[in-house]
Amino acid sequence: MYLLDSDTLRLYQDQDANVLARNRRTPYADIWVSGITAEENVAGRLGHIQKVRSGKSTGSLDDAYAGLHQTIALLAAFNLLAFGQTAEERYRTLMRECKRQNVRDMDTRLAAHALVSGMVVVTRNTRDFTRIAAVARDFRFEDWSTPDGAPVQTG
C-alpha cells in the first residue's frame, strides 16, 4: 500500500506521464493520501488566499479559491488516511532519531504515518527520505516520477 507525498500528488494533478502510468497499474485500494499531505496542501491554499486578501500576493481571490477547490477535489479522488495519536507518537520518536538529519517536519510526520501504517511513501524527495531511511531501517519509499517507478535503494 502506498502513501502519496505532496510532490507526487502535484505531479498527478499536472498529469505527469510516469506518475499516471504507475497509478493506473496500482489498484485504487492501494493508493492513499495521508492527513499530513492533505493538511500540507490545504494549508498552502489557505495561506495563498490570505496573501491575496492582504495584498501580499498578486492574483485574484477568484483564482485563489479556485485553487482551493481544485485541491479539495483532488484529495477527494483518493483514499484518505487519518493521522492519529499512534502516528504522532511515532513521529516524536522519529524526530529524536532524525535530530541531526536536517529533515523537514512534515516529511518526518509522513514517514511516521507510513511506518505505523505499514505503507510505502511515494515521493521524488529522495534526499530527505533517504535520511529518514538511514535512521528508520523499516521505512520504505518509491519515486514514481521515474520511468520504472522502482523502490529507492537506501543501503
What does this protein look like?
It is a single chain. The chain has 155 residues and is α/β, with parallel strands linked by helices. Helix content is 57%, strand content 10%. The chain is built from seven helices and five strands. Strands 3-2-1-4-5 form a five-stranded parallel sheet. Helix 3 runs antiparallel to helix 4 and helix 5 (85-97) packs across helix 6. The model has no long low-confidence stretch (mean pLDDT 93).
Low-confidence stretches: none
Spatial gap, N to C terminus = 22 Å
Spatial order of the strands in the main sheet?
A: 3-2-1-4-5
| Series of H and E elements | EHHEHHEHHEHE
Number of DSSP helices? 7
Q: Write down the overall mean pLDDT.
A: 93
Q: Decide which structural class fits the backbone.
A: alpha/beta
Main β sheet profile: 5 strands, parallel
The total of beta strands comes to 5
CA-atom Rg in angstroms: 16 Å
Compose a concise summary of this entry:
The chain has about 160 residues and is of the alpha/beta class. It has helices at about 5-15, 15-25, 35-55, 60-75, 85-95, 105-115, 125-135; strands at about 1-5, 30-35, 80, 120, 140.
Q: How would the blueprint of this fold be written?
A:
Layout: E1 2-4, H1 6-13, H2 17-25, E2 31-34, H3 35-54, H4 61-76, E3 79-81, H5 85-97, H6 105-117, E4 120-122, H7 126-135, E5 141-142
Parallel strand pairs: 1-2, 1-4, 2-3, 4-5
Helix pairs in contact: 3-4, 5-6
